[in-house]
Specification:
By secondary structure, the protein is α/β, with parallel strands linked by helices. Helices cover 36% and strands 23% of the residues. The longest helix has 16 residues, at 213-228.
Length: 382
């Protein structure tokens, strides 16, 4: 990590960028992401203060449309010492008057970004890069949009039309309309520097990149694609997970792990999705919509919704509904009860063994099974 900071990509060193700056904002990820901030954030802050020892630094938690982090979650993520020393603020996408309109994005949406970030003399971000099922990759520009953008801005970026675009897919940046909005938003917000890490299967730092927001992020994405790209294994039954904690905290996050399974599933294949879902369904809109109709009804309703009328969290409903129309999906979870699971048109299983047995009953004892231990951590080539 320190070596990456000494050799930034497409940018002067961070300490040099900080020189003479009084008001600095550092964007960081929230409790739903596995960013090892207890390691990365102190190093980042150290570099900033090496350039500007008396700078007024705010750590802005990029919640997107998620709830804010609790004090306990902040202590677990950042460490009690850092929490006591630094000013840490949760972004609130729903707060009226908390945003600055920076202009139009390619989607036609207003680029409404958190005022704290816009008014900073230097805006930097930390995060990590992993495959993302519609933004191509996480990290980099995603700290700004959706991280610290308004609800309306996020909604239009995640519209049904954008989500249905063939380039809005895992591992794709060029031509991806969702990414194009995100990178323009980062530029308009003047995101000057990103510090992103790549994690191994044990959530340990495996690599680090930093520098100019687009150049450094693309370098990290290329490194990840080389390490995590796999060819599909067409199968009758596909078993996947959402990568364990923290991404399997709720069902709302689980289209990420599902995406890898869809790339391997033969026509009519059974998919087994294992996720603890300790916080249940997740977002309020997501949970409500998933229970409001059949997959066909949900998908038709979402696809008929104009971009400017996008309902927060409908994008994950869209991906689930589309998948459920093509495949039987067995959900292995202990955080959501059987009745609710079945009302959402999944099948319920209490264990992996039970789910595999159910799938083989449907597909036959000779069915080919593909296992994806971490559905979030791989890029299945299409």
């Amino acid at each position: 990590m320190r070596a990456a900071l000494r050799a930034p990509i497409g940018s002067p060193p961070l300490a040099e960028l900080a020189r003479g700056k009084r008001k600095i904002v550092v964007i960081t990820s929230d409790h739903t992401r596995a960013v090892p901030s207890a390691l990365t954030l102190p190093i980042l802050l150290e570099e900033l203060r090496r350039g500007s020892p008396s700078a007024d630094i705010t750590v802005l938690v990029a919640t997107g449309l998620h709830r804010g982090m609790t004090a306990a979650e902040m202590e677990k993520r950042f460490g009690s010492g850092l929490c006591a020393r630094e000013r840490i603020v949760n972004h609130d996408a729903f707060a009226k008057g908390a945003f600055v309109d920076l202009g139009l994005l390619p989607s036609g949406s207003k680029c409404e970004i958190n005022r704290l970030a816009v008014e900073a003399e230097l805006l930097v971000a930390e995060g990590f890069i992993e495959p993302h099922f519609f933004a191509g990759f996480s990290g980099g520009r995603k700290s700004v949009l959706p991280g610290i953008a308004s609800q309306d801005c996020v909604n239009i970026n995640h519209s049904a039309r954008a989500m249905a675009h063939p380039k809005a897919a895992t591992g794709v940046l060029d031509g991806n309309p969702i990414h194009e909005d995100m990178i323009v938003a980062a530029r308009l917000a003047k995101l000057a520097f990103v510090f992103n890490v790549l994690l191994d299967e044990e959530k340990r730092v495996a690599a680090a990149v930093c520098g100019e927001a687009d150049a450094a992020h693309r370098a990290g994405c290329a490194l990840l694609a080389a390490r995590c790209g796999v060819d599909p294994i067409p199968a009758d039954v596909v078993l996947t997970t959402n990568g364990g904690y923290p991404l399997d905290q709720n069902l709302y996050q689980c289209p990420k792990g599902l995406d890898a399974a869809l790339a391997c599933a033969k026509e009519g294949a059974v998919i087994i999705l294992a996720a603890a879902c300790r916080d249940g369904l997740g977002g309020e809109n997501f949970g409500r919509m998933m229970l409001e109709g059949s997959p066909r009804e949900l998908l038709d309703r979402i696809l008929a919704t104009p971009a400017e009328k996008t309902v927060s969290e409908q994008w994950c409903v869209q991906r689930f509904a589309d998948a459920l129309l093509r495949h039987e999906i067995i959900l292995v979870t202990w955080g959501i009860d059987r009745r609710t699971v079945e009302k959402m048109h999944f099948r319920y299983a209490a264990s992996i063994e039970e789910a595999v047995g159910m799938a083989l009953e449907r597909k036959g004892p000779g069915a080919k099974i593909a296992v994806i231990p971490d559905g979030v951590g791989v890029i299945v080539r299409r």
